[in-house]
Amino acid sequence: MIHSLFLINSSGDIFLEKHWKSVVSRSVCDYFFEAQERATEAENVPPVIPTPHHYLLSVYRHKIFFVAVIQTEVPPLFVIEFLHRVVDTFQDYFGVCSEPVIKDNVVVVYEVLEEMLDNGFPLATESNILKELIKPPTILRTVVNTITGSTITAEIQGVIDACVKLTGMPDLTLSFMNPRLLDDVSFHPCVRFKRWESERILSFIPPDGNFRLLSYHVSAQNLVAIPVYVKHNISFRDSSSLGRFEITVGPKQTMGKTIEGVTVASQMPRGVLNMSLTPSQGTHTFDPVTKMLSWDVGKINPQKLPSLKGTMSLQAGASKPDENPTINLQFKIQQLAISGLKVNRLDMYGEKYKPFKGIKYMTKAGKFQFEPEGRVLQREQSWTLFHFLLVQK
């Protein structure tokens, strides 16, 4: 019955989508955006919007549009009642239903939506039953989300790299689930720009071997999801030669993907002579000359978060440092594009043989910094890397 669900804020940005069957392109929401522009008030957007191949049914609550995509005719009140039940469930789980809260609890949100529908039909819609299946966020998680603070600046630099090894003159087309995400795009000369302008499809005859098909930039704050958080306690006492150092790293909004290759580095104040630390996993070093602390964490296990804690020895008679050190992170996440961009189809024309096609996603950290108050200080939040391979069978 219900094929997909899109959550759209009052600014017209899709900040969450869930598909119970095959993925429906975000472009279907263009019909909703047109109706939204015609409406003088958000409440005046028609609850039922027909499109050539779908019906869009929506409710507007807590400054969020909950838009369901239907492929066949169904009683509209049945779908609208389900959408209201989704909103009530979120409010019951998280205490408030808002865009920031949904983003901060995105894993639980997806788990709840997965249980509420079975192959598109309502299954478990009562909160007491859902809470038996999926535990609500704990107080610890709420505290962690509060401690991690606000994002000062964030952006994504994304690229699509290709490796093509095909004979002849193959003509390729590459389409995306959500091309609206792409901003400030730079193309390889082989791309037919007019086709992209009119249809948002990449059409090109590829060169042989490795090349960068395109690069793009995402800077809209509400589209950049922060995949990790750092909980820390760094303190220096007055009239004392000791200080306390403790940090914990955890995953956030990774869609269940593993964060690996994690390293933490921090330039300690000059007054720190030495550090006596114990890591729960990985290895660490502290250079007493350069004052650089390095911690090779490795993979993050959500069930047992890595931590590094201990004491700092300060120079006798030295004044207390004016500020705590900035914490820098490096990491990568395989098979996840933090930008949300997804490939829909990759097709070949002009040749009769059938190629082998493969597409890989990866997110890598750029400059990823946490300052002492817990806010994220980022200039390059991450690189989203796509790599697709085409070889002749």
Automatic annotation (TrEMBL):
GO BP annotations listed: intracellular protein transport; vesicle-mediated transport
Pfam family, one: Clat_adaptor_s
Keyword Ribosomal protein: no
Source organism superkingdom: Eukaryota
Repeat recorded as keyword: no
Membrane topology: Peripheral membrane protein
Annotated InterPro entries: Adaptor_comp_med_subunit (IPR050431), AP2_Mu_C_sf (IPR036168), AP_mu_sigma_su (IPR022775), Clathrin_mu (IPR001392), Clathrin_mu_CS (IPR018240), Longin-like_dom_sf (IPR011012), MHD (IPR028565)
Keyword terms: Cytoplasmic vesicle, Golgi apparatus, Membrane, Protein transport, Transport
Intracellular or extracellular location(s): Golgi apparatus; Cytoplasmic vesicle membrane
UniProt name for this protein: AP-3 complex subunit mu-2
